[in-house]
Amino acid sequence: MNFVMPIEDGSDRRRATTAATRRFPQFELAIRRLMDRSESFRDMCEELADAEFALSRVDEITPELRGARRAEWQELVDRLVGEVGAALLNTDATGKSGSNRRPR
């Protein structure tokens, strides 16, 4: 079963921005700047939004697969959160955002 959401023009960007901002609210301005400037950052945030969506729907699959899929999706979410956080720390957008706090 595939839980990736269908591609829609502006909604992917909104979902991606929301996913990153939900995890790193103190970096909202930096996230918005990176979304404008970096296709790879946008893609990473879109993947995070898709993985969070899939994780939220894991209870809809058969019980035999549920535990394994939950673990897989959670691992992907955790990895992507780490990558988004690293991107925020490794960019000059963070310094320009007026915030020098580290992602949690």
For this entry, give a set of tags.
single chain; 104 residues; mainly alpha; elongated; disordered N terminus
Set out the fold topology:
Layout: H1 9-23, H2 28-37, H3 39-56, H4 63-89, H5 92-96
Helix pairs in contact: 1-2, 1-3, 3-4
Descriptive account of the structure:
With 104 residues, this protein is mainly alpha-helical. It is elongated and about 40 Å long. Mean pLDDT is 86; it is low at 1-8 and 97-101. The protein has five helices and no strands. It has helices at 9-23, 28-37, 39-56, 63-89, 92-96. Helices cover 72% and strands 0% of the residues.
The share of residues in helices is over 70%
Overall form = elongated
Distance between the termini: 32 Å
Report on the biggest sheet: none
CA-atom Rg in angstroms: 15 Å
Proportion of strand residues: under 5%
Q: What's the assembly state of these chains?
A: single chain
Order of helices and strands: HHHHH
Number of helices: 5
Total number of strands: 0
Unreliable spans: 1-8, 97-101
Which structural class best describes the helix and strand composition? mainly alpha
**Which whole number gives the mean pLDDT?**
86
